[in-house]
Amino acid sequence: MSETLHANATVWTADESAPEASAFLVRNGIVVAVDPTPGELTGRETVVDHGGAFVMPGLGDVHTHHLVAGRADLFELALDATASLETVLTSVAGWAAGLDSEAWVVGGGWGSTLAQAISTPDVLRRLDRAAGGRPVLLRDDSCHNRWVSSRAIELAGISASSPNPADGEIVRDQVTGEPVGLLIESALIPVERAYAASLGDSTALDAAGCRRAIEMLHSFGITHFQDAAASLPMLRALADLDRRGDLKAWVVTSAQINDRIFGTDPIGVPLLDAVERYRTTHHRPDFVKIFLDGVPTSRTALFLEPYLPDAEHGDKWVGESAMTPAELTGWLLEVARRGLGAKVHCTGDGAVRMLLDAVAEVRAAGYADTIVQLAHGEYIAEADLPRVAELNVVADLSPPLWFPGVIFEAHCQCLPRDRAIRMCPNRTLLDSGVLLAGGSDWPVMPSPNPWIGIQGLVTRADPTGAFPGTLGAEQALTVSEALRAYTIGVARASGLGAVTGSLTPGKSADFTVLDCDPFAIDPAELVDTKSVQTWFAGHPVHTAQ
After folding, report:
1. CB contact at 8 A, 83 and 113
2. b/e map 101-125, b = 16+ CB within 10 Å
3. How far is Cα 161 from Cα 143, in angstroms, rounded to an integer?
4. Considering the entire predicted model, what is its pTM?
5. Strand residues in 238-351 grouped as ranges (E)
6. b/e burial code for range 474-489 (CB count within 10 A of at least 16 → b)
7. Are 226 and 287 in contact (CB under 8 A)?
8. 3-state helix, strand, coil in the chain (%, to 5)
9. Measuring CA to CA, which residue among 278, 286, 281 is closest to residue 253?
10. Are 62 and 493 in contact, with CB atoms under 8 Å apart?
11. Which 3 state secondary structure label does DSSP give 148?
12. How many CB atoms lie within 10 A of CB 340?
């Protein structure tokens, strides 16, 4: 039997019944007592003296793409969303110079604001030259669009005669009709699949990617997370890691029902029928992922009111949904019958209303406990705000867009600013009784650092200082509320509330030791908070250098 007393600490438990403590007792990886009494101690415990440091439950992330992020960190080119076209092309050239002549140049993070600039044959030729004729696959900062080279277009079988898919667009030269290298939403799927085919058996790459991502999450104090779009290779990799004793986090996955941006195969029922084979102690394939709309920056999010007019869409375009209301309701009912939860991507207020209408039918059918997460929910019509709580829908606050930044400014190029500034009404949701769960959407956001989101929730200002002002300051949360959103909020939202998310007797001993007390510092300095140590199931998994 392993017993450890963690003592001499300033402990914030995230448990409202006993929020503060100075010590807790762990037995065989489980918290058995908080501020234990002498009668609960045997005298044989190993004592860890934290020297008065601030200790809190392991942080969570309700919305990651951890495998994509882990593989990107290990193997891919990282771009900056604020970089100019010239800088991106220079980066591509430098990266390509170190690759074999037929290797793919893969990476991501270029800014959505470059979309118009790259939509020309001349820029496609410049990309081809920078890559030395190699196939190029670069994801934008929303991860919903791709910039690709001529060789990638060729390998994907895309040509001037290729029709646009239902949920996407092949951007073309207006004179010749030839693709210019920008692929919107589902038009990118053939290129993603061509790249996947070039890898062959990716099991080793996927396992390495998952492991690396979890190491990175541990460095930020994160011990539980939900992957927002799971594939069969991901499920295999996670199950394999756990069966070998190498999965040091609680991982919830969301099997894809439909696909606009990843090229995943299989999806839908065939993937759902396979998930139980990959359930392990720490990997829980308990959710599905549904894309209901796209993103405002590519005018594929569904709104109740029109976008700003442009030459392609006119002045009445409100976006589009990926499913009909009947299809969405049918999928949610199928998910509920299987005992799963649903993460539903909605960025426009029209998509949010469609989701709430479908959830109302699910609740009326008797599925009161099915977890439904409103993923992103950046824009919610005022009339629909109370319905989120009434229908027991979870707010997946992801990515951290509740402060000024690159993506907000991109929204203002396609939406009236007076509508864009109403983004992310977090205080209104919380006050109405909605469960808030914090996330990063990593690697859409370059870092999974939860303190970026926590500070943004509290100040509604850009934690980096790069963008001035605030965005809806009246929607700010307190430090305690923000921390709860990133701990017990994530755990409850992802179905892990009984095992983690707070330092409560009976739960896994998952916690992080910080270099400061977040309640005692200026909220404008929260982003500088560091995890000195991270512990999972009673064992250290990260120690800062």
Report:
1. no
2. eeebbbbbbbbbbbbeebbbbebbe
3. 26
4. 0.90
5. 250-256, 283-291, 341-346
6. ebbbebebbbbbbbbb
7. yes
8. 35, 25, 45
9. 286
10. yes
11. strand
12. 19
Angle between helices 203-219 and 66-75 (to 10 degrees): 100
Give 386-425 pLDDT, tens digit per residue.
Answer: 999 999 999 999 888 899 998 899 999 999 999 999 999 9
Name the amino acid, one letter, at 538. Answer: G
**CA atoms within a 13 Å half-sphere pointing along the CA-CB vector of 226:** 33
Q: Look at residues 391, 392, 341, 338 and name the one whose alpha carbon lies nearest to residue 371.
A: 341
pLDDT per position as a tens digit, 451-485:
999 999 999 999 999 999 999 999 999 999 999 99
Helical packing angle, 232-243 and 203-219, nearest 10°: 70
Write down the residue that tokens 């667009």 correspond to: 169
Task: Map tokens 């499913």 to a residue.
Answer: 323
Q: How many CB atoms lie within 10 A of CB 175?
A: 7
Alpha carbons 147 and 149: distance in angstroms, whole number? 7
Is the pLDDT at 214 greater than 80? The verdict is yes
Q: Which SS3 state, helix, strand or coil, does residue 543 take? A: strand
- Residue ranges in 100-178 assigned as alpha helix (H): 121-130, 150-155
pLDDT in tens, 220-264: 999 999 999 999 999 999 999 999 999 999 999 999 999 888 888
pLDDT in tens, 294-339: 999 989 999 999 999 999 999 999 999 999 999 999 999 999 999 9
Which residues pair with residue 34 across a beta bridge?
A: 24
HSE-CB of 386 using CA atoms within 13 angstroms: 1
Please count the residues of the chain.
545
The first and second tokens of residue 420, run together, are 């864009």
Q: In what side-by-side order are the strands of the sheet with 3-7?
A: 30-34, 24-27, 3-7, 46-49
- Provide the CA 76 distance to its chain's centre, in angstroms: 19
Query: What distance in Å separates the CA atoms of residue 258 and residue 334, rounded to the nearest whole number?
Result: 14
- The total of other beta-carbon atoms located within 10 Å of residue 142's CB is 23
Q: What is the reported pLDDT for 245?
A: 95
For the purposes of burial, counting CB atoms within 10 Å of the CB of 244, is it exposed (0-12), middle (13-18) or buried (19 or more)? exposed
- Residue 171: the pLDDT is 97
149: closest CA among 174, 168, 167, 126? 126
User: What DSSP designation does 314 have?
Assistant: B
The conformation of residue 508, written as its DSSP 8-state character, comes to: B
In single-letter form, the type of residue at position 115 comes to A
Matching residue, tokens 């859409």:
444
pLDDT in tens, 90-114: 999 999 999 999 999 999 999 988 9
